[in-house]
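Example 5.3 — Transcription factor FapR
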Amino acid sequence: MVIAVVRYGKDERRKILEAELSKHPFFTDEELALRFRVSVSTIRLDRGVLGIPELRERTRAVAQEAYSTLKSLDDQEVIGELQELIIGERARSTMIIEETMVLAKARVARGHYLFAQANSLAIALVDAPMALTGSVELKFIRPVQLGEVVVAEGKVTKRKGDKYWVDVLLQANTEAVLRGHWVLFAKERGEVRETEME
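Solution (predicted structure tokens):
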């Protein structure tokens, strides 16, 4: 079987590169070099010509925009680093597993850190000043090691009135580590009474 290798001309490559990075700003220069079958320095040159900043700056810009749209949480209530947030649709965050987050003997992440990252991402997707978790179905798939970067991606799958259904997937090294299904309720600030929380 012969696989055709697509090589783009400079102008066409730059046009496609610009479109790719507007949709997926987290691609690294190395990933783009593989995708376009050119050197990393060629990708850097293309980015420079197009006025597209390096990954760190793109990530910072996207994160600032994401934090500015938060409604149901304060900035410091998000567990992990918010990368993308389109309220009512999808969200993404990252978290590095540090020494304080692991079990002393097993050297793997404590489950409540992974749950907290996923839960805060699910809540951030709710279009209301407050969101309450109604129920969660969780499956831990594999342990997460010290130093691994956990990428959480959340998606609203259904909405009916003040009720949201959200799926969240956590991955480390592109392997699934946790999967969950949330049912959340959108609330106004004065709406929550003690009786609702019992």
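Remark. The CA atoms of residues 102 and 110 lie 5 Å apart.
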